[in-house]
Specification:
alpha/beta, binds nicotinamide-adenine-dinucleotide, globular, binds 2'deoxy-thymidine-5'-diphospho-alpha-D-glucose
Length: 372
């Protein structure tokens, strides 16, 4: 029971998905439409929101993309009253740690205040529903493993009982939103579900994040910036596995419960970058030395969490979910996707994207790191 297809028996399901034009949200919307779920997609279309992620849904009357902010109370109330969704799935967020270091306010506005406003408006509408509808309604808040803080090598992986200890403005803002979601369940009985997932990879990820950044820089022969010594560890999960987990939690998760989601794929950043280089060497050979010669160690991220690791035995045991993509084959497919989708790549590398590269990397001196 790993896929959206399990939801096909539900009559005329409808979901309000927020942030559904971003990386994970768009993957979720595409799967939801394949499963016959009507989707109202509320997205502010920030630099990270891209309608081209949903181009395959052009002309689909059961996908309605609405440009707007989760913090816009009137708009959210109107969408709830008009479409009466069976669930709200909240992906909308500012999502990049480095940007949260440069401009924390934007993270407080959307992740903290926006989520709190969304919860309040949904709660008021939910309370007006007849009992049989209210009982079936779900609010799923999509969160991150970063709220648990940082691990050292050998530490046990994060469980759902690990105390929150966020270190970056991004993870602190996500932690605040998680607490609000839990509080709305405890205080008002709103049927909230919470998921905390590890690092996602896959098609359509905005190239500010490590894997697409490295792919695109390598294709242009630019330096591949590795923070510090590249020894930090992340647990990687294919975006489709994340979306399938969310569908399972929505379908059968216990109200008020949180579920960790992870890929059983811990890798150091240097291992990930080297793996991308090896795939590119195979697909677009560069000659002597290969793409790994482009690896450049740069000044570390301030407050850089050393390691994340997820214990996802709860969702595996209770809901029968487990990841189906192996990291190595999933990464190869991802690299191939970026090679095959040059118009998408050219579109997202706008002037605003180039400005971000100048802000984030312009000031980072080359550092004496490890061995490329
Ligand atoms: P993303 O940055 O690619 O997309 C975020 C989307 O939210 C964009 O489409 C953006 O336009 C929209 N948005 C931003 N502010 C908004 C607002 N105020 N109102 C409406 N829409 C708004 O992010 P992503 O990587 O797809 O992450 C989606 C969610 O999953 C986030 O909540 C993130 O914290 C969480 N998450 C991400 C990862 C990961 O590895 N990327 C892992 C775990 C959890
Ligand atoms: O763990 C889940 C989180 O994963 C999500 O909540 C976030 O939304 C998502 O952005 C991601 O956060 P990270 O900070 O782990 O992802 P990022 O791709 O930015 O960085 C991955 C690792 O690579 C991290 O240790 C920092 C490092 N890095 C990143 C960039 C952009 C580099 O070494 N060089 C880089 O240029």
């Amino acid at each position: 029971m790993n896929s959206f297809s399990d939801q096909k028996d539900v009559p005329a399901p409808c979901q309000l998905v927020t942030g559904g034009a971003g990386f994970i949200g768009s993957a979720y919307v595409l799967e939801a439409r394949r499963a016959g779920i009507r989707v109202i997609n509320l997205d502010k279309l920030t630099y990270a929101g891209n309608p081209a992620n949903l181009s395959s849904l052009a002309g689909d009357p059961d996908h309605i993309l609405v440009r707007g902010d989760i913090g816009n109370e009137e708009l959210v109330a109107f969408l709830l009253q008009t479409h009466a969704p069976d669930a709200v799935v909240n992906f909308a967020a500012e999502s990049h740690v480095d940007r949260s270091i440069v401009d924390p306010d934007a993270f407080v506005r959307t992740n903290v205040l926006g989520t709190a406003s969304l919860l309040r408006v949904v709660k008021d509408w939910w309370r007006s529903l007849p009992a049989h509808r209210a009982e079936k309604f779900r609010f799923l808040h999509v969160s991150t493993d970063e709220v648990y803080g940082a691990l050292q090598p050998g530490d046990p992986a994060f469980t759902e009982a690990t105390p929150y200890s966020p270190n970056s403005p991004y993870s602190a803002s996500k932690a605040a939103s998680d607490h609000m979601a839990r509080a709305f369940h405890e205080t008002y009985g709103l049927p909230v579900l919470l998921t905390n997932c590890s690092n996602n990879y896959g098609p359509r990820q905005f190239p500010e994040k490590l894997i697409p950044l490295v792919i695109l820089n390598a294709l242009e022969g630019k330096p591949l910036p590795v923070y510090g010594k590249g020894a930090n560890i992340r647990d990687w999960l294919h975006v489709e596995d994340h979306c399938a987990a969310i569908a399972r939690v929505l379908e059968s998760g216990a109200v008020g419960r949180c579920y960790n989601i992870g890929g059983h794929a811990e890798r150091t950043n240097l291992e990930v970058v080297r793996a991308v280089c090896a795939i590119l060497d195979e697909l677009v050979p560069l000659g002597q030395g290969g793409h790994a010669d482009l690896i450049t160690f740069v000044t570390d991220r301030p407050g850089h969490d050393f390691r994340y690791a997820i214990d996802c035995s709860r969702i595996e045991k209770e809901l029968g979910w487990k990841p189906v993509h192996a990291f190595e084959s999933g990464l190869k497919e991802t690299v191939a996707w970026y090679l095959a989708n040059r118009p998408w790549v050219d579109h997202v590398r706008s002037g605003a994207y180039r400005d971000w590269l100048a802000v984030n990397y312009g000031q980072r001196a080359a550092a004496t790191g490890g061995t490329p």
